[in-house]
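note to self: dont lose this again. the chain is below, predicted strucutre after it. 221 aa total, dont forget to put it in the shared folder this time
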Amino acid sequence: MSILEIKDLSLKINNKKILSNLNLDIWKGHVHAIVGPNGAGKSTLASTVMGLSDYRDITGKIFFDGKEIQDLDIDKRANMGMSFAWQEPARYEGLKVRDFLLAGSKKKDDDYISEKLERMGLDCKDYLDRAVDETLSGGERKKIELASIMAMDPDLIMLDEPDSGIDVATLEKIFEVIKELKNKGTTILLITHSLAVLRQAEHAFLMCHGEMIEKGKSENI
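---
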């Protein structure tokens, strides 16, 4: 059963076509990957699915859990159970890690969000009262962003280049979390040009120049 369906999707930015007639199904409870070289349109596709403001000049249809969503705002899509972790996590000057995690958390509870931080290898005593700003490294912010997504407990998680800017140990931790999320029924969509990340997926879609070139088992792609 598909949790995300994309039908004949095209996108223009500044009157230039970026995505062309894309069709794909993302099966519920599986790990999928969208792969291709830099500039293929992978992150653009994820941003379009999530409904970011600069990615709304589209034709075609997007269905999430059987409901048509291409006209919905990003917050409504998030409330339906979609989430997106950017390649470069955002900084939030003056906002503490605790408040950042609690903002979207399924449970408004310090123990619950602390568990998610610890699962990402971060000691809650050292991080809950720190600000989500430039004092955190890119790797730390990525772990915190993933902890926040785990706290949301969404049905679909899109991870944009999850290996970007992190060390090998952190990447292995992310791979462990991906397996755990899959085992509990969460659908994962990995946006990547990395073979190591692609190997975490069961199914993959190959993109180039905004078009879908091939789809199939990840080892075949």
